[in-house]
Design goal:
Number of helices: 8
Number of strands: 5
Strand content: 5-15%
Distance between the termini: 35 Å
CATH superfamily: P-loop containing nucleotide triphosphate hydrolases
Order of helices and strands: EHEHHEHHEHHEH
Helix content: 40-55%
Bound molecules: thymidine-5'-diphosphate
Strand order of the largest sheet: 2-3-1-4-5
CATH architecture: 3-Layer(aba) Sandwich
CATH topology: Rossmann fold
Length: 232
Amino acid sequence: MTAGASDRTADRAGGPPRGRFITFEGGEGAGKSSQLAHLAERLRGRGLDVVLTREPGGSPGAECVRHALLGGAAEAFGPLAEACLFAAARADHVDRTIRPALERGAWVISDRFYDSSRVYQGDGGVAKEMLRLLEAVAVEEVRPDLTLLLDVPALVGLDRAGARRGGAIADRFEKEGLAVHERRRRAFLDLARAEPDRFAVIDATQSPSKVSEAIWRNVQERLAVAPPIEAR
Ligand code: TYD
């Protein structure tokens, strides 16, 4: 029998059942980081081993690549080479952090994963086929069980991010940014529509507590979460 999605969570030769892999995606100001931390706490409350990680980064090698990518040093290489660097960082992250954690039965929550490459590098002009090829090489069989897309209109997200920085959105550069952010938002929503079994779209314009409840509902409904320890 060939290995398929149905036996990915099965016991492997006496080892623990594979953990679950949850990714968070979304644009600027969607509130990913606080929601990620909150979900991790809830899952730990159910006695689960939870690994919180992020992209680009999440392993020592990938954190070095993150530095080059976000610090601007990689920009001169152009969009395709940048996409390759994101994929190289992802391969290391998968091999050294995500896969080992899933194999020991941990639940992994990653702040961004390959959907960010599909959207950001796709928007940067790298062909979809090329991105899917890089993705397949980087992740092999390690694909998210659930992707939580925290969706906010670009203006709301940028406003929130601006408020955090203590400034309003006004200058030309930021206005140009708005169209780009809105395009990326549409691209994330298109991905969600194409894979409704994997994605849950969360309306992140709601209050943080409502967003958190919507996330928890989706995690419980879509992934089997054990009951609280005291109820067992
Ligand atoms: P980061 O500082 O982690 O912030 P946030 O996730 O809150 O936006 O920035 C990561 C940036 O890298 C973000 O602008 C999205 C971008 N990115 C890509 O372009 N491609 C990718 O594959 C990933 C994972 C991130």
